Amino acid sequence: METSRADLSGILHLSALGIYMHAVTVAIVIGFSVTLTIIELLGIWKKDTDLIKLAKQISLVIVIAFVFGAATGTLVEFGLIQVWNGVILAIGSFFFTPLYLELAAFTIEAALLVALLYTWDKFKNPWTHWTITFTYTLGALLSGALITSVNSWMQAPWGTGEIVRQIYPWAPVYGPTLVNTDFLLAVKEALVKTSVSLIGSGASLVNPEIIDTLVDSYGELLKDPWVSIINPYALTSVIHQLLATTIVGVFWIAGTLAYNGLRKREKRDYYLKLFKTVSLIGAILLIIQGIEGHEQGLMVYLYQPTKFAMISGLEKSGPYPPAGLTIFGDPNYVFKGFDYLIQAVENHPNPDLKIAGIPIKEIALRDTLNALEKLPIVKTLYEFKIGLAAIAIIISLMIISSFVFKRLWTGKEKILLYSGLAMFFIAPAMAGLGWAVREIGRKPWTVYGLLYPEELVTPNPIGVEVAITIIGGIIVGLIINLTTIYVVLRKPPKFLRIGEE
Amino acid sequence: MDLTLPITVLGTILLIHLTFVNINIGLGFYSFILRWRSITNIEVVKPARKVFKFLVASEVVSGVYGTMITVALAGFWPTLVNIATIILFIPLIISIIGIITRLTSIAAYWYTWDKVQPKIHLSIGLIMALSGLAIPAGFRYIFAFIDNPVGLASLTPISGNIVEALMNPIYPPLLLHTWFGALSIGFLAAAAGLAWSSRKDKTIEKWSGYASLLGGLMIIPQGLTGFWFWSTLSFHSAYLFYSINISFLPTGHSLTNVSYTFLGMVLLAIAILTLGIIYYYQPSRKWIAYLLAPAAVASLILGEITHDIGRLPYMVILGETGIPMETFINKLLIIEPTLILSVIAIIIFFTIIFIALLYLYLVKGILEE
User: Fold this and answer.
1) ipTM exceeding 0.95, yes/no
2) CA B192 to CA B291: how far, in whole Å?
3) Closest-CA residue in chain A for B162?
4) B67 and A81 in contact by Cβ < 8 A?
5) Model confidence over A281-301: pLDDT tens digits?
6) pLDDT, tens digit, 9 for 90 and up, residues A262-273
7) Which entry of A389, B35, B210, B236 is 20 to 30 Å from A272 by CA?
8) Phi (first) and psi of residue A100, to 5 degrees
9) Are A206 and B64 within 8 A, CB to CB?
10) Are B182 and B352 a contacting pair, CB within 8 Å?
11) pTM higher than 0.80, yes or no?
């Protein structure tokens, strides 16, 4: 059974859709949790019942999103493992610790979410409830951080030392060698052999007999189970992704408040007050994200040379002023483009080395050229994202200025509300484009410099009916999620009414 | 790696998940039955709504732990999961379709209550109830597969016949046994919940008794299909059959003895059948309903222990022997026992809070509403 290039492309699109749809739930659960924590804190501190009421409504939305997230999570997970079952090898090794810790984070989240919903107005001291909210939010953030660290290892396979560099001379060293080099190279050799012989996907090689043989010959694959958590790329990515997700959630709340403020003129002051408070949180986070973005860019520069060249559009080496200025303080600094990467491959230091009979120089050249093919799309997506980020920063500054220059904004509140409404769409568009750059920029690899999608995909053919089932399920799940949120917020059923309301 | 800790992790999560999944399946059917009765008897509207809300709240728990099972399985037994996802590709798709239909129909059933004609609402309810059965219809193939790996042709590379895998002889009795068990547990959970509600509203009492009768009577087909399952094991999964019967029958050799958990399950089932009928005739004795629900859950747990521990030290049974658990255990890295223990302690601690609060919420918010 062979997975054709066209099938593979379809499966990649299917996975991307699944992840984007799941991201909506994640944005609500994480973004709304942070907002809830801050809004409840402000509500208690200022003794503002409007803020407390908003906090209660936010908690209700989180519960609904969490329920659907948990239910569809099984679907998404099984879907992913069924389609990309070669990834199971990584789940059992590099991803083991973050995913195992995720079990604890997920239980904490579930328990404390029910606790915070149930204990609204139950404590004499409101700070006790806030402590539950705060701890729940830490659980949600921890959960997001652990999943991001898994993705980050696929971006920068920390602990593999010089292995990637041996194949691609332009590649960096990914930290100390914490992986069993012989074991990993033997797996890679087997995977390449499988793809060359067209037996099918390498996923069918992840079986007890082969693993036993490899362990008996070389020992364990991984020496440090914490490798994907200590990855410097992960540390930066966690902050970047959590900020991005939170910003989306915050501006979804702000945008909804802005919409209500514009629609219900008689309650405009009420909604404007809440909108300004929530959007201020988003504006501050967005500015922090702008600063943090530099750190994320630096990581891409250090650990993903092909992605950096794609983002900066460097088919040929040359200056890329934004990065030159922020990284080296020199806008004319000359960065290495694809011409340099290809030249480095052509002057391969180990041209005689082979994997499964194929010279690694040939592999490296083919992959570098495949990466170059992605430059136009990645560059366009990145520039579009930066354009939106610039608009978002301007809107954020407007929101902040409305607190500083109150007189200036008197009578112009509608502009603020319309801006907030725009951010309802701009924030997820930015995050979505950022994620697309992150994922497409990693290609042609699934694990950067090590594994390709075709090595991990299921040997079973994925028919149209399977794709439609999974896509349909994900879309239906999302629609139900959003409809439930709408229905519950409009008229909460008795058993979901909170506290003393 | 020592096997005790991974088995503990998987066992804990699996038992919590299975408990709530079974409760949910039964609640779905009982909600449908009550809704059907409510068309001609307005008195039944209230319990029908309560049972459905009970279902929605319990669905959360099964969803949370269902997600966790995938991680625990793939993390500790990666190669087995890989084999299952390749060979049992079709059954897993069936489960995925079941999950999608279940979620959709639960939401539709909720939104359309009193908003569409009762017969249309009832049709949605029927889909909701039946879709609950589709989820184990897929996942039970995994259990049938490890009892008797039909469809697996080769391990290196993993290959097999994904259609032949559907013909596993263990599957039909196992599935039917599971379905009847789920209905029994769910009906008895409904009986307990409605018994609590009936403290304030006597009209509900009758429907608590009715649930207990149905839950009790389900033990009869469950017992019959259980017998079918038991006899099928003797032909197709001899080692497991020996483990189950070693103390009572002159069977072959087994390293594991689960005959007493098996006996415990059977005795509990008989008690459930008896008490279920008694409570139907004497619904004022609420303690019986409160006893029946945990008894049903205990019976489920004993049954799962019998089925899953009975395979030890093997993970996959091959007639009178099997493939040891060690074969599939994760050997790719050395996992610190302290890491495993810390996480399992956190899971257990927060699960207790989670379930306690959820049920407190359920009792205060739904059953006493």
Assistant:
1) no
2) 8
3) A460
4) no
5) 999 999 999 888 889 999 999
6) 988 888 889 999
7) A389
8) -70, -40
9) no
10) no
11) yes
